[in-house]
Amino acid sequence: MRTRENRPIEPSEAFDAAILFQRQGRLREAESLYRAVLKVDPEHFGSLHHLGVVRAQQGDLNAAIRLMRSALSRNPRSVEALSDLGVVLEAAKQYPDAIKCYEKALVLAPNHVVALFNLGNVLQTLGRNAEAVAHYERALALKPDDPETHNNLGKSLHELLRSEAAITNFEKAISLRPRYTEAHYNLGVALKALGRHDAAIAQFEKALELRPNYVEACNNLGTVLLEQGRSGEAGACFQKALAIKPDYAEALNNLGNVLQASNRLDEAAASYERALAAKPDYAEAYNNYGTALKSLGHYQRAVASLEKAIGLQPDNAEMHNNLGNALQAMGRLDAAMASYRRAFDLDPRQGHARSAYVMLKRRTCDWTTFSADQQLLLANLDSQAVEVSPFVTLVLVDDPALQLESASRRSRELKFAGTPAVWDGIAYSHRKIRIGYVSSDFHTHATSMLIAELIEKIDRERFEVYAFSFGVDDGSQMRRRLEQSFDRFLDVRRVSNMDLARQIRELEVDIAVDLKGYTQDNRAGVFAYRPSPIQVSQLGYPGTTGANYMDYVVVDPFVVPLDQQPYFTEKLVHLPECYQPNDRKRPIAEQTPSRAECGLPEQGFVFASFNNTYKITPEFFDRWMRLLGAVPGSVLWLIGDNEWVTPNLRKEAETRGIDPDRLVFAPRLPAPEHLARHRLADLFLDSLPCNAHTTASDALWVGLPLVTCPGRSFASRVAGSLLQAVGLPELVTATLDEYEALALRLAREPALLNEIRNKLARGRLTAPLFDSDRYCRHLEHAYHEMWGRWQRGEPPRSFAVPTLPS
């Protein structure tokens, strides 16, 4: 080795010069000198060690590892070399060997801060966060003001769900280095986990200020904005992230979520497909893709996508729940039940899966674990950690207090902290009161069959009536009738909850009416944004929404007596006769099928119960079987809702000593034909805790008497209200024994039954239940009273509409 002046230099001088070049980043010159030293002295420890570091800096990790191992064979007690080799092994993802190097270094030098820090990093990478925390804390005890160690300690604490402690460390890192971009980002992640959304947003925005192309910060900012319902801003964040990194799978997945929340389902599906192309093992994207496909009606593809998600994450309870939803939509109820069962076995807090499972068992009339399922449902209602579907609670539990608790939990979930109110308190001054009906049921559906004539009859001199429809257009006569009946009919299927709320506000709707509540395909979240000054729950959901943003519920004194007000967050509006409207134009097919065509015997009494099968309980079935036993030749006529109902109920009949063939199952038919076959039945048997609702008015409209026993809750008192309003209070019993006795008496005394049938036939067109004009005037009075109180600046209050003259 020689200098430029051709003077020979000693290996020590060359080594020192190489060290200097390496520090200056002149790696090729440093490498040349290290190799020159090694030519003279192949055993030179320092040159082997530092040449290994240079090769690592140049990206040749394998060469670096060989050189460093060679150096350590000369000096196995070099803490520095052990630590540096650990770094290179970690970079090469040879984590076990990296750990061994750091541990050897710490045996030789227990207080070596760098080795402690680096060992913590490897353990963190491997998910061994508790061990990582211990090493970071040892490092901080020796060097308390190191921002990187505080930051990394915070990351492991966050992974251990110790978010408050994590935040303390991120904040310390930032105090030591105010422009520490990664610490700002990590602090945002921890704040987001605690639901402190505004603070999280500030940290992500600070990280982006420091590093505008910080794609992870951009993506996470979008996720927080999306959780706040700020979907437009969230979408812009994801688009910005994708402009920086077009194949960023996480941003593509999140953009899909924004599009799905906005009901732009085809675009959402396309975004998920791009995410999966970029990251084929992305379980979350498969899950979200499956939910979008399910909403689009592509059930088979949805199931396939969700099964792929579960293949990647077999223990993800949410994915099993979503698979259950898709299978249920396909009609594969047994497979759906298995998926729901797997979901809540994995996570007992999966209240929606438990609710769906119990409902499917009821729909299929599988009562093998009826009592245990009911008890577990009640236990979940008692638990603050488990949300039970409000609708399931409504139809399966006759307890207004539990129904309120379940609904209130759901309403709080919809109105999360920071949900903005769309209506800004401005009083409108229209000449006509604007009513906006919000529903997915403006087609051939039970709700529309009740409400169609009411919409036609509302006084257009005093009211404007808008429809906000987010359900399918089935092309039916009912759909066309409704489109013509409203002053404005808006199809909002492809509109997000927030945007729908804004649309209601822009149209200055005075009274927004929710016809869905928590029933299937609801958009209750729209009302959480408070789009209107007056918000009303009406008709579609027979119970409280539990929501402090719903002002009124339309009821009557029978279905919800005034003493039930404590179990409703809404103020009770009592219509004088019946809460339920009815359509006198409801067509009944002229042709009545024969008994043989319906599978009924030519002779014998026909008990009927065309309720949904989930309303049938073992207790009522016991009574129905006793009625069959007491009335020779009688049959029970039920709806054959699915392929499991018939064998299950026939088996239950047989265990009660009744010939299974005395149960007759009716397939579903279009409404006119379904109504016509009611003429073949003799007596409708109601159920409890959920009565017949539209099904009861169907029976009464055709002239079929109905026996009921009211319970305590709204859903259990509907049939009683209808019977009162049609002039047949004698068919409303006080106890289940009276219910059974009255049904038996009517079956055994044809004269008494004929008298009731004649009374129903005589009063059907004049009774309040089917007097659409009378109902309309009462409801208009109620709307005007709500509107008047608001105009006067008075808060909502319960009130009763007086009986208006005919």
Question: Any overview of this molecule?
Answer:
It is built from 36 helices and 13 strands. It has four domains: 11-202, Serine Threonine Protein Phosphatase 5, Tetratricopeptide repeat (Alpha Horseshoe); 252-414, Serine Threonine Protein Phosphatase 5, Tetratricopeptide repeat, CATH 1.25.40.10; 433-574, Rossmann fold; 596-764, Rossmann fold. It has 806 residues and is of the alpha/beta class.
Please give a handful of descriptors for the protein shown.
8-stranded parallel β-sheet; 7% strand; 36 helices; Serine Threonine Protein Phosphatase 5, Tetratricopeptide repeat; Rossmann fold; 806 residues; alpha/beta; 4 domains
Going by CATH, the architecture of the largest domain would be Alpha Horseshoe
What structural category arises from helix and sheet content? alpha/beta
Helical percentage: 55-70%
Number of helices: 36
Main beta sheet: 8 strands, parallel
Return the average pLDDT rounded to an integer: 93
Per the principal axes of the C-alpha atoms, what is the gross shape? elongated
CATH class categorisation of the largest domain: Mainly Alpha
- Tally of DSSP β-strands: 13
Tally the structural domains: 4
Alpha-carbon distance between the termini?
118 Å
Radius of gyration in whole Å, from Cα? Answer: 36 Å
β-sheet strand percentage: 5-15%
| Adjacency order of strands in the biggest sheet | 3-2-1-4-5-6-7-13
> Poorly predicted ranges (pLDDT <50, ≥5 residues)?
1-7
According to CATH, the fold-level topology of the largest domain is Serine Threonine Protein Phosphatase 5, Tetratricopeptide repeat
Question: What's the CATH H-level superfamily name of the largest domain?
Answer: Tetratricopeptide repeat domain
